[in-house]
């Protein structure tokens, strides 16, 4: 069966510091991968998605970037965090190759920027 | 552009009773998918149920069923025999196909369900 991991689970970082959040998927090949952000009490907003290694698309202009160095690894980064980057970050995967349906989410990373 | 609306910010239901969570959507795409996710206090988004726009029958998964009314553009979630563990945020979402064959989910604002013992 497929599993999706995210770490760290929680993170407190000062403004201006760098960021690296990691997401890995097991039990599947060539998945579509996604990064979402959820502000407190709100729905999810898609930040980045990837349909293959090195292929990254951004949905929202921002202070963040994403990379996919391996088939089942998706990384969210920032060079300098802003207060507005605080939130709950969720990674998700769906089967690749066409109009895949269900997205499955990881446990999330709660980021607080002080 | 797609839009998902959940008009109930919070709801109470008595344990063992059924509850309906509302979701309306707006899209010009003839082919789409509708999802419901549960988010407990731990934060993880748990997939509950899926309905395709061309599905003839309403989707069901255990105690969850989706009341799909295509002409009215609504996809309400029905939870039968509520349990205390059902207390959580519930999100309705719609799939939108992206240019390079990936897809994104557009989420509603969520409904907080609280089950009373």
Proportion of residues in extended strands of chain B: over 45%
Helix content of chain B: under 10%
Mean pLDDT value of chain B = 91
Portion in strands of chain A: over 45%
Oligomeric state, counting identical vs distinct chains: heterodimer
> How would you sum up the major sheet of chain B?
6 strands, mixed
Q: What about the largest sheet of chain A?
A: 7 strands, mixed
Low-confidence stretches of chain A: none
Radius of gyration of chain A: 13 Å
The most extensive interface between chains reads: A-B, 31 and 29 residues
Mean pLDDT of chain A: 91
* Estimated helix fraction of chain A: under 10%
The class by helix and strand makeup of chain B works out as mainly beta
The backbone outline of chain B, from C-alpha atoms, is: globular
What is the straight-line distance between the termini of chain A?
Answer: 38 Å
Distance between the termini of chain B: 41 Å
Topology of chain A as a string of helices (H) and strands (E): EEEEEEEEEEE
Poorly predicted runs of chain B:
none
Please explain how this structure is put together.
- The complex is a heterodimer of chains A (114) and B (117).
- Chain A is mainly β and 114 residues long.
- Helix content of chain A is 0%, strand content 56%.
- The mean pLDDT of chain A is 91.
- In chain B, strands 2, 5, 6, 10, 11 and 12 form a six-stranded mixed sheet that branches.
- Chain B is globular, with a radius of gyration of 14 Å.
- Chain B is an all-beta fold.
- Chains A and B meet through strand 5, strand 9 and strand 10 of A and strand 5, strand 6, strand 10 and strand 11 of B.
Q: Could you give a quick summary of the protein structure above?
A:
Chain A is mainly beta. Chain A is built from no helices and 11 strands.
SSE topology:
The complex is a heterodimer of chains A (114) and B (117).
Chain A: E1 3-7, E2 10-13, E3 19-26, E4 32-38, E5 44-52, E6 55-58, E7 65-70, E8 73-78, E9 87-94, E10 104-105, E11 109-113
Chain B: E1 3-5, E2 10-14, E3 19-21, E4 24-26, E5 33-39, E6 46-52, E7 60-61, E8 64-69, E9 74-79, E10 88-97, E11 103-107, E12 111-116
Parallel strand pairs in B: 2-12
Antiparallel strand pairs in B: 1-4, 3-9, 5-6, 5-10, 7-8, 8-9, 10-11, 10-12
């Amino acid at each position: 069966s497929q599993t999706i991991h995210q770490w760290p689970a929680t993170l407190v970082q000062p403004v201006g510091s760098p960021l690296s959040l990691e997401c890995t998927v097991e039990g599947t090949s060539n998945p579509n991968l996604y990064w979402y952000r959820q502000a407190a009490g709100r729905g999810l907003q898609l930040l980045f998605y990837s349909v293959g290694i090195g292929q990254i698309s951004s949905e929202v202009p921002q202070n963040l970037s994403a990379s996919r160095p391996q088939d089942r690894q998706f990384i969210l980064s920032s060079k300098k965090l802003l207060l507005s980057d605080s939130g709950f970050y969720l990674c998700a995967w769906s089967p690749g190759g066409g109009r895949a349906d269900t997205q499955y989410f990881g446990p999330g990373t709660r980021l607080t920027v002080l | 552009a797609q839009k998902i609306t959940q008009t109930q910010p919070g709801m109470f239901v008595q344990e063992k009773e059924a509850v309906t969570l509302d979701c309306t959507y707006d899209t010009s795409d003839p082919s789409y998918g509708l999802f419901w996710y549960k988010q407990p206090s731990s934060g993880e988004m748990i997939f509950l149920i899926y309905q395709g726009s061309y599905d003839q029958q309403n989707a069901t998964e255990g105690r969850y069923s989706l009341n799909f009314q295509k002409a009215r553009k609504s996809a309400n979630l029905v939870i039968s025999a509520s349990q205390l563990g059902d207390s959580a945020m519930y999100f309705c979402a719609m799939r939108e196909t992206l240019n390079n064959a990936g897809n994104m989910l557009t989420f509603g604002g969520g409904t907080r369900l609280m089950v009373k013992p």
